[in-house]
Amino acid sequence: MSLTPFWSHYWSPGWTRFAFFQFGGENFFLKTNVLKHKVNIDHVLDDFAGNNEVGAYLDLHRAEHLDIVSSLDTPNAGPHFVTYEKTGEMTVNRIRSDCMGWNLAASFKSRENAAHVVTCAVGPRSLMIVA
């Protein structure tokens, strides 16, 4: 099997923790720049010509301390994302319809020192596995 990329792009230094999500049938992603202390939401262009920044310098609580950021599929509830710190502190955040920020939906303590947060939807439920 071979793969042929039809679009690739080199990111500037510091960008990490990409969380892809869909909103209104369009593709977006949340990304963090640990060097410039930036959190942005970008819209992926339909023609694969790149992406457009929708929201920039967004305020993500404790962004510099996060170890994992993952999108959360929430059927009929709009796009969400999960944050995780090695201390076990987690949040669930609902992305606003203008993609200019989010609202905290829940915060809680999970297991410490996890390496993965896997999210999925099963029927009408959203699940997280912290391992």
Task: Please give a quick description of this structure.
The chain is an all-beta fold and 131 residues long. It contains no helices and ten strands. The chain is globular, with a radius of gyration of 15 Å.
- Percent in helix: under 10%
- Helical stretch count? 0
Q: Which geometry do the CA atoms define?
A: globular
DSSP strand tally: 10
Helix and strand content put the structural class at mainly beta
Mean pLDDT across residues: 90
CATH superfamily: Glycosyl hydrolase domain, family 43
Q: In sequence order, what are the helices and strands, one letter per element?
A: EEEEEEEEEE
- What about the largest sheet? 4 strands, antiparallel
End-to-end distance, in Å? 31 Å
Radius of gyration: 15 Å
> pLDDT below 50 for ≥5 consecutive residues: which ranges?
none
- Quickly count the domains: 1
CATH topology: Tachylectin-2, Chain A
Topology record:
Blueprint: E1 15-23, E2 26-33, E3 38-44, E4 51-55, E5 68-72, E6 80-84, E7 89-95, E8 102-109, E9 117-122, E10 125-130
Antiparallel strand pairs: 1-2, 2-3, 3-4, 5-6, 6-7, 7-8, 9-10
Question: What does this 3D model show about the protein?
Answer:
This protein has a single domain, classed as 5 Propeller (Tachylectin-2, Chain A). The model has no long low-confidence stretch (mean pLDDT 90). Helix content is 0%, strand content 50%. With 131 residues, it is an all-beta fold. Strands 1-2-3-4 form a four-stranded antiparallel β-sheet, with no helix packed on it. The chain starts with 14 loop residues before the first strand and ends with a strand. Strand 9 and strand 10 form a beta hairpin. It contains no helices and ten strands.
